[in-house]
UniProtKB/TrEMBL annotation:
Annotated keywords: Cell cycle, Cell division, Periplasm, Signal
Pfam families in alphabetical order: PD40 (PF07676), TolB_N (PF04052)
Intracellular or extracellular location(s): Periplasm
Protein name, entry field: Tol-Pal system protein TolB
Organism whose genome encodes this protein: Oxalicibacterium solurbis
Length: 431
């Protein structure tokens, strides 16, 4: 296989080659992501969210964060209200129902003696004339946004039956010339923190199942090496540093192992290794390139990209290795597999008519759907509730992040005022 054919097949492998040649460059913005929303869900729930009592004492307006979360989901229609209602207020549910609201949210914010902020809220169903939920959350000021996100998560779950993902986090890479940042932010792009700064490229970040660590590939040693970094202590260790390329880390569901793509034996193949770098074991053994492994949620299978059939397609094999079964058949170029938590859906990037776009395959019936309208998509990542996909794309010649619901109806764009962001990954539910 020629160098040219390899680079055309796998953009991730091509990125590695380009990095080694010193070809990557870009711009970094030290700013929060800006969210733009397009589209709505199939059946929007009309909901009134009153201003919380005493929330002006807090550094952020809690009710505004809750509104923004629910509106961003695409599945709620916010009923305008200028009312201030606390969790102790007498709420006229019949009146709110007459205004078109199926649900009403009320609450308050109090500052405790130890400096923390106590957020209390109640959720009412106007149709059933009943309270659906209530929460009381106390947190330091720096975690006030998290409290608001948790309230929004509770509302989302109580009204849809699906766990909310507003209190989860995302990670991505931003770049400026030869300076690269691995950044972690709230799901709405706020609260950004830099996990790693490097003068060499960083690619392929992947969250641990418990959300405390991120595995990634760094070129700081002038070659691709897989690291695992603890986001709490900032300590990190080498998980894979073998001859050739070490790339594409993916966590096992129990957090004990990483599936990686290594070229130590020549062509890139799939291996599994303990997170501390011990216990390396080869899983695939093909005459082509096998890369981009992903564990299924039950840990029994690994999905990966391979050119063994002549062009890049997605395959599935046992997590212990062995024979592989081809999964994608539409189109002649399908890469970057991501499997949903219920094992029923496969997201991937497909090149068709010269466009790299995000697709979703229903593994139960074989139906395929294109989810993106952009043409340079990569790095898809499921939200932990399986209802949204995060991916990287291009807008105005620079990297941005896109979010789309799995039914394709709700689309969001996360951008910076200036700069280039790429390689996104959506973190797990935090316990």
């Amino acid at each position: 296989m020629t160098h040219l054919s390899i680079t055309r097949m796998f953009p991730r492998l091509f990125a590695i080659m380009a990095v080694l040649a010193g070809l990557l460059a870009g711009n970094l913005a030290h700013a929060q992501l800006r969210v733009e929303i397009a589209g709505v869900g199939a059946n929007q729930i009309p909901i009134a969210i009153a201003a919380f009592g005493n929330e002006s004492i807090a550094p952020q307006q809690v009710s505004a964060i809750i509104k923004a979360d629910l509106q961003r989901s695409g599945y709620f229609r916010i009923i305008d209200t200028n009312a201030v209602l606390t969790e102790n207020s007498q709420v006229d549910l019949a009146d709110w129902k007459s205004r078109g609201a199926d649900a009403v949210v009320v609450g308050s914010v109090q500052k405790l003696a130890d400096g923390r902020f106590d957020v209390r809220y109640r959720l009412f169903d106007t149709v059933k004339a009943a309270q659906l939920s209530s929460l009381a959350l106390a947190a330091p000021s720096q975690f006030l946004r998290v409290s608001a996100h948790k309230v929004a998560d509770d509302i989302y779950e109580k009204l849809t039956g699906i766990p909310g993902i507003f209190a989860t986090r995302i990670a991505y890479v931003s770049r400026n010339g030869r300076e690269y940042h691995l950044e972690v932010a709230d799901s709405d792009g706020q609260g950004m923190q830099v996990a790693l700064r490097s003068n060499e490229p960083i690619i392929s970040p992947a969250w641990s199942p418990d959300g405390t660590k991120v595995a990634y590939v760094s070129f700081e040693n002038r070659k691709p090496v897989v690291y695992v970094q603890n986001l709490v202590t900032r300590q990190r260790s080498v998980a894979a540093n073998y001859k050739g390329s070490n790339s594409a880390p993916a966590w096992s569901p129990d957090g004990s192992k990483l599936a990686v793509a290594l070229s130590r034996g020549g062509l890139t193949q799939i291996y599994v290794v303990n997170t501390d770098g011990t216990g390396l074991r080869r899983l695939s053994n093909s005459s082509g390139i096998d890369t981009e492994p992903q564990f299924s949620a039950d840990g029994q299978s690994i999905y990966f990209t391979s050119d063994r059939s002549g062009g890049p397609q997605i395959y599935r094999m046992s997590a212990s290795g062995g024979d592989a079964r081809r999964v994608t058949f539409n189109g002649n170029y399908n890469i970057s597999p991501r499997i949903s938590s219920d094992g029923k859906s496969l997201a991937y990037i497909s090149r068709r008519d010269g466009k790299f776009q995000l697709y979703l395959l229903d593994l139960t019936n074989g139906q395929e759907q294109r989810l993106s309208d952009t043409v340079q998509d990569e790095s898809p990542s499921f939200a932990p509730n399986g209802k949204y996909l995060l991916y990287a794309t291009k807008s105005g010649g620079r990297g941005t992040l896109g979010v789309v619901s799995v039914d394709g109806r709700v689309k969001q764009t996360l951008t910076m005022q200036a700069g280039d962001i790429q390689e996104p990954t959506w973190g797990p539910f935090m316990k």
